[in-house]
Q: What sequence folds into this?
């Protein structure tokens, strides 16, 4: 394309005369000189993009639109003709108490997990950033659980939290506590899942926070120290405001992820006891692929969840939007 | 000051050991004889140690062989990594280095797709793959993964950070766009490509929901699917085989992680934060 100007392929290419040196030719400047090869300037980039765009069309765009269409039909596994049934799948969700319960549970999980998953890595990062030795090693130790699959993590904590023979409760009892049955107890099952998720992802957010902390110019702290600011004051006036965009990023990523929680629940409780840990994706999975094979209804659920996620992301962007210039 | 730092370091060392304890407990359990597994108080050294659970899950598990699942996961993850790297890099190159109509629209579309949760595609993709008879095949797990915009985004950022002098010099020597891309940009981008490789390997190796739905034959299960179903095949008294399977599934990434700890960290930092 633009930089094809120098190519020897028979085409007559006018050399850009005002250029002081051919090496200094930047992309944008050369564009104007490449007019005779305009078709090439369009075709070449799209040749590079073609594999991605083709796959994107088939495996992202088409499913997005087809899924939306399906959600307005009575599609079902094995049924060859789908009949359009309007908003039926959506209005039926209003009567589906299990769907509502699973929406509520997903919300509870999101609320309960936000503080530990946001706060713990931030706390660790701030402390690690205060000149702790062996930082790479320690960071690696916290990051390790994030390399595991959600299934492995779920099985690990299922075994660890076993009320009878698991070490977690054994040591709690040794400390004089009367530990709950965790996953078997409706009042603690969701907390156990929050603990599991926290262990899984803390290292990931820790690495993100550490990178952001290192990006804060040291001279800001030096200037603050000269002005007599305490380290607490420096944290509130420098660190926290400059971390805002990263905190926003982490909150959004976390909320999007926690609305889609499934693996932990599938492995650890299968939605129980009762329905207290049944989440939207668990319900969607059972509706679409296990009990009813009702693709239309399951698609409608996925779109409702998508819209909720979009709504929350938009709210967060508005609430936490702020400038970070330094 | 030095005392406080040592104290803080000591505190963190203790915390890190505690943090890794759950994983150690899994490893210890997998090496115990079945009768020792449920002993209270917990024993942290398997005595006598045994590999019997490993041979059981590898050869003759009750639901699906972990050995076969390991092979499936490896094939899918390796193919995904190669495909993601090639296709993402090809797409990232013009987005970083060329001016052409539609560039901003293409980029916006790709980045926008990162906001769309994967569950939106589960049912339509299932119907699509069912229609062409590709359920329970490797390509059902590989192809949708190649259409992920994450790698394009990451590599574009990295390409933009590279100076273009070398590319310009190659142009003058008569190299065409593909040669510039392949011989100059790609070798210069090894750190970013390594980070992307580790990331897509991790994602593919650990992916759960889509393989659970798309793989309906035992011999096609990936490790997370086989493990999740292994759970139902054993009672809680025989955690040995389940824990052995968990250890096996964790090993490849643990090895990658020990070798390339720095790359992983750089990858996290590259992904969506810088720039």
A:
């Amino acid at each position: 394309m633009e930089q094809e100007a120098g190519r020897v392929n028979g085409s007559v290419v006018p050399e850009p005369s005002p250029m002081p040196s051919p090496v200094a030719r930047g992309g944008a400047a050369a564009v104007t000189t490449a007019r005779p090869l305009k078709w090439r300037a369009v075709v070449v980039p799209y040749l590079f993009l073609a594999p991605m765009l083709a796959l994107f069309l088939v495996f992202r765009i088409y499913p997005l639109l087809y899924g939306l269409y399906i959600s307005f039909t009575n599609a079902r596994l094995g049924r060859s003709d789908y009949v359009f049934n309007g908003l039926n799948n959506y209005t039926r969700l209003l009567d589906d108490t299990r769907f509502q319960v699973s929406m509520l549970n997903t919300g509870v999980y999101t609320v309960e997990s936000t503080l530990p998953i946001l706060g713990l890595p931030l706390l660790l990062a701030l402390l690690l950033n205060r000149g702790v030795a062996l930082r790479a090693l320690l960071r690696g130790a916290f990051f390790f659980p994030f390399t595991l699959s959600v299934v492995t993590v779920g099985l690990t904590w299922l075994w660890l939290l076993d009320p009878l023979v698991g070490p977690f409760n054994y040591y709690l009892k040794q400390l004089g506590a009367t530990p709950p049955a965790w996953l078997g107890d409706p009042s603690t099952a969701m907390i156990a899942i929050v603990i599991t998720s926290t262990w899984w992802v803390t290292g990931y957010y820790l690495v993100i926070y550490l990178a952001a902390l290192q990006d804060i110019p040291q001279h800001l702290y030096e200037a603050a120290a000269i002005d007599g600011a305490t380290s607490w004051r420096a944290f509130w006036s420098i660190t926290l405001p400059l971390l805002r965009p990263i905190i926003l990023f982490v909150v959004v990523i976390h909320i999007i992820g926690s609305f889609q929680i499934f693996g932990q629940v599938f492995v650890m409780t299968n939605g129980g006891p009762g329905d207290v840990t049944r989440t939207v994706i668990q319900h969607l999975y059972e509706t679409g692929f296990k009990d009813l094979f009702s693709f239309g209804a399951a698609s409608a659920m996925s779109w409702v969840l998508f819209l909720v996620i979009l709504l929350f992301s938009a709210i967060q962007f508005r609430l936490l939007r702020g400038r970070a210039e330094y | 000051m030095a005392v406080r730092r040592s104290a803080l370091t000591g505190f963190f060392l203790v915390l890190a050991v505690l943090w890794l304890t759950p994983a150690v407990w899994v490893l210890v359990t997998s090496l115990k004889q079945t009768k020792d597994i449920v002993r209270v108080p917990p024993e942290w050294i398997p005595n006598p140690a045994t590999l019997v659970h490993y041979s059981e899950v590898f050869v003759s598990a009750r639901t699906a062989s972990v050995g076969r699942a390991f092979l499936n996961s490896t094939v899918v993850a390796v193919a995904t990594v190669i495909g993601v790297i090639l296709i993402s890099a090809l797409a990232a190159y013009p987005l970083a280095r060329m001016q052409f109509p539609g560039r901003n629209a293409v980029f916006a579309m790709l980045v926008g797709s990162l906001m769309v949760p994967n569950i939106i595609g589960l049912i339509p993709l299932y119907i699509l793959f069912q229609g062409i008879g590709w359920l329970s095949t490797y390509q059902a797990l590989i192809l949708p993964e190649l259409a992920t915009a994450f790698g394009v985004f990451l590599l574009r950022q990295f390409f933009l950070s590279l100076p273009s002098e070398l590319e310009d010099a190659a142009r003058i020597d008569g190299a065409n766009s593909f040669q510039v891309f392949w011989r100059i940009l790609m070798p210069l981008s090894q750190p970013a490509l390594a980070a992307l490789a580790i990331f897509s390997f991790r994602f593919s190796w650990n992916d759960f929901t889509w393989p659970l739905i798309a793989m309906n034959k035992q011999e096609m299960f990936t490790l997370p699917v086989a493990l999740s179903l292994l759970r139902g095949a054993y009672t809680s008294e025989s955690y040995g085989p389940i824990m052995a399977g968990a250890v096996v599934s964790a090993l490849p990434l643990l090895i990658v992680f020990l070798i390339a700890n720095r790359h992983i960290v750089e990858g996290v930092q590259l992904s969506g934060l810088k720039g």
In short: The longest helix of chain B spans residues 66-97. Residues 88 and 152 of chain B are 5 Å apart (CA to CA).
